[in-house]
């Protein structure tokens, strides 16, 4: 197969759906020589912040001279950018060569009466074979969905497990409570490893710590008390941690916390022989890149893209926008999937919005732009009714006059394409205005390409 044929083969396996379980991936890897058993791993699970944390760790370890593979999902600009060694993404010809072998083994599996692996399982196998054959010193492996039954969990005990912030997402698969979701994420924990843990909500953290205790896994809970933001200028941010200063080009105050998780994971890794000089730590953090996360694509007007696609992600984005662009009303480009908590996300965004440019994400699970517009209207009505009820309550209790403020309904426009939405936002903006595109990583790369950002 050539690259295009290999890519088409992978995409056609979408018909098998996203079926959780490790039997298919384990069998496929066995037929490929079990490359995962010959590699060392950092395994990263969580709802938000996984990719950024992986990027920080890989950048630092690469600066320290190690050959480090990184497997993330989904792809951003190109299929091959999800499988990297150092700064280089997987070569297309190499991908096609490995996929030819994988396809042969899948055909053998099906002939013997076994289920065909799913799309994500095939891509996971592709990455693991590639990292092994390229003699990586270490692989940073990001969980695709959940943890316990995710195909990345086919590995044996990693050197370090990392769990980033956990919140409500994929509830139809992972469970409707934080305890259930945390239990799925904690499924990556294995005896013989150790855990670096982002501070979690109490109910999630209790589940994770119990699992770690059962497995007798050392836990390194990250503390943010010794960190302080020093500077943000729209191009980079500086912070201090334990008396040392660091600089990040990945923006957003939450990224400082992700960087601290990465630092603690690298400290935990040192006992396994992966020494990281301080200058490599400083340099690696400063040059790390992770596209589509509070990324500024241009100024005058300022255009920001952010992959926030769940409630926690939107709350973090809102906090950053309020901190860095205080008092500014923002043109919001929005596309979402219908299985997300989109009404709660809209409620968070409304106080910031000057207007909405709405698109339908190119995905079978997309909520149509017209439906998003209607949901925004419904949320505005809810806010109006809540405000009116509060005013009536204050009046009834004969308290001082309640300042009832009529809801200011924002303009909502629907567009057939992402390009049309961006064109409209730019045409209506003044140089000091802010435009922010968010809601789904399935369309954010199109905004990236609009501005000629290909790397």
Span of the ends, CA to CA: 26 Å
Largest sheet: 8 strands, mixed
- General shape: globular
Q: How is the CATH topology of the largest domain named?
A: UDP-N-acetylmuramoyl-L-alanine:D-glutamate ligase
Radius of gyration: 23 Å
**What would you call the structural class?**
alpha/beta
CATH architecture title of the largest domain: 3-Layer(aba) Sandwich
The portion of residues assigned to helices is 40-55%
Quick one: CATH superfamily of the largest domain? Mur-like, catalytic domain
Main-sheet strand order equals 4-3-2-5-1-6-7-8
Question: Mean pLDDT, rounded to whole units?
Answer: 93
Counted beta strands: 17
**Structurally, how many domains make up the residues?**
2
Low-confidence stretches: 402-406
GO molecular function: ATP binding; dihydrofolate synthase activity; metal ion binding; tetrahydrofolylpolyglutamate synthase activity
Cofactor: Mg(2+)
Protein name: tetrahydrofolate synthase
Catalytic activity: (6S)-5,6,7,8-tetrahydrofolyl-(gamma-L-Glu)(n) + L-glutamate + ATP = (6S)-5,6,7,8-tetrahydrofolyl-(gamma-L-Glu)(n+1) + ADP + phosphate + H(+)
